[in-house]
Request: fold
Amino acid sequence: MSLFEQLELFSESSAALVAPSKLLAPTKPVAGIAVVPTLRPPSLAAGTRWREVRASTQTIGFVLQRSRRKSIGLTINDDGLLITAPSWVGLGQIDDVVIEKSRWILDKLSVSQARKAQMAMAHTRWQDGGDIPYLGRRIILKLGETQDPTRFLGSAFAPTNGDTLHLALPLTAEHGRIRDIVHAWLQHQAQIWFELRLQHFLAISQLQIKRWRLSSAATRWGSCNSDGNIMLNWRLIHFERDIIDYVVVHEIAHLREMNHSKNFWREVGRILPGFEHARNILRQQDPACLPLI
Reply:
């Protein structure tokens, strides 16, 4: 069975420095990297401005702040990417830095956003207006519905922040009752989505499984045994779809290699090119520390 190794979380003061005189050429496109949201903050501090640059894989937005420093600084904070640059450095030169450092920026933003989502799970409010993470987005709980069953107003497997999950419960419903119904819905969605992704990647790999089922394991995202049985942790439904794809492919690859050898990782890459990005993100998420919302 597979057990993902644990890595220490990255430093909270994620930053990089680039001297304006040592800029490199833009990097080549990075294949297999999912789009990472880089949204404009609700408000900007005095003396800052919002700017967007088209990198090789996506557009990257950032807050630009001028200063007296001698180098260009890149910092990942709660609002996203902050770039501090000398007043004499041109915008084109700053844009070049963003393009050159796009892989680093997107990796750090992904990890930061995943950590924020995990921390938010610990503060789920089981009440009308509360929100939960679903496929990498925050969806809102709505109580007081008279219709049954539970209804999701949004694209079932391509949600956006602010989509609503309507529950046939009174506004005064106990928190435990709300949680149980939401869990049941999440597990139902996980059953459908995981099945679709399993069949998709089994077709690519030309491998077969005996059966699969959801798990609630506290220490594993997934497992596969020599009999061809796969288990997938239902709480993966909280994460982005590319994270789920990586776990699915990870377990499928074990059908051919019951280890973590070079041949195993070669098999993972054959089925899912560019998997490394999702793997790096998931390694920051310890199942044992995932709040059991």
In short: The longest strand covers residues 59-67. The chain has six helices and twelve strands.
